[in-house]
Amino acid sequence: MRYSGLGRIALTAAFLTSAAYPAIAGDWSGVYVGGGLSFRENTVAFPNGTDRVTIDDSTPPGIGHFEKVPDLEHKGNTIGGHVLAGYLFQKDRFVFGAEADYEFGPSFSVDRSPGIPTCANPPIVSPGNFSCIGLSTFFEDVKTLGHVRGVVGVELTPTVLAFAAGGLAIGKSPELIGASAGGFVADPPDSPLVGAATVTRRGLGETIYGYSIGGGLQVKVGHGFMLRGEYLYDKYKGQKIAVGGAGFGGTIGEVTINSFSSPGNRVDYSSHAVRLSAIYQFWGNDEPVEEPAYLAQSDWSGVYFGGGLSMNRHEVGFPDATNFLNMSNTDTGGSLSVTPSNEFEGDSTGGHLVAGYAHQFGRVVLGAEGDLEFGNSFSRERDPGGPECLTQPINFVELGVGHFECVGTKLFFSEVKTLGHARLTAGYEITPALLGFVAGGLAVGKSPDRYGASVFGAVAVPPNAPLVGAATVTRSGLSKTVYGYSIGGGLVLKASEHLRLRTEYLYDKYKSVDIAVGGAGFGGTLGNIQTNSFVSPGSKVDLSSHTVRLSVIYQF
Questions:
Q1: Under a CB-based contact definition with an 8 Å cutoff, are residues 515 and 472 in contact?
Q2: I need a labelling partner for 250 at 20 to 30 A (CA). Which of 348, 400, 439, 443 fits?
Q3: What residue intervals traverse the membrane (predicted)?
């Protein structure tokens, strides 16, 4: 996900538009305060980490070999807020200043798996054995705290300022860092090789520093108030850590396993962000020396087109799904029941193109428009081996001692997409330069082409032979164009005679899609442990999305 494209579009359009107008001096000098929303993509990487699994099978006639090196870079999105304060000084059309801000909201974490992490290998490497080896690195509570930056800008029009900013970024490093490794290998008639290990270290959280660069547009809306849209990239100095690692391995029959996971000795943190701010400036003069005619005229009628950035949160739900794990100890009467969620969320960032027509009646503006979305998709792929364990590898509480179990279920699907909209709009002119609007109409999307369910498990109760297995069911060719309704609203700001800046929110809800996929199960009785698990997506899938869009629009 990269947010810099919107900045390039907005700045280019503003420069081209403002070039047609004479230089009219505005006044951007003064102290200001403000706040708003921050949409951030966080990246946490362990550049010196180790995360590797190798499996060799020497069963004649040859040697089977499997090797995988998982990715040690973790990405995730957060939505929070910020407050800011600063001072600007204007010299001719150039503006200079300094500002500081404080960020608040959720931190970014990648949690430890409850048992063995997701299998890094297919459940069966070669005939005659069953193996599931999982590795993961994890961490808690990484976040951006704030910035201290210098600002340099140029007045494009009396009401539009383009600026670049750079300076100090302040953040918080992970409070906890760790690594997990675990596995289960059965190669009859030998006893199974089982185990899991985790290493963690707490108390690592500290204030970290780095640099921040970015830029954006700031627009006057009158009476000291301004709106700002900007992009920031923050990069922090790598933090030295000492955590250690976790391993699982050994030889059973003809199969030799070697796996190890460690975060290494350094963690790097960086982020890309888009921020939307409302600002109030003290002691400034927001009335230009010569007010352009477009700021005084009520003129929102005409054909328009444009485009910009779309930030989506997709929601995929399986209301008729079956997804459970039940285990019991027939000797003690202890039992364990797990019911995973069948609703999933995922973020994506893409773009959109929009075109429409609006006509003004007094202070009311009515219109119609259509748009195309691109790059906005969400998928939940099948794991290479099996899902993460739903239980701890050794359950001492519910089921008692003397056994090992790792059972996982998972629903998965390919890409779900937003394709576009056809909407009617209704707006109200707040000022000649600011329009508030609502919009509603048709949402068009694409449902997943593939759905499936997978389950795997391993249960060992000595001296019995282990109960092991894995199953997956998939069905492809189910993609179709889906329709639903879209509602939303936002603000449109005149930045010049023809240039409009728009920010809006959309909610899209599609008609449920009928599917027929089937399901996968794992279970049986081993010694005193009974296991029953099953997962199926059911007969229906629900699709919806929340979207924030930033647009640059040219109106004829």
A1: no
A2: 400
A3: none
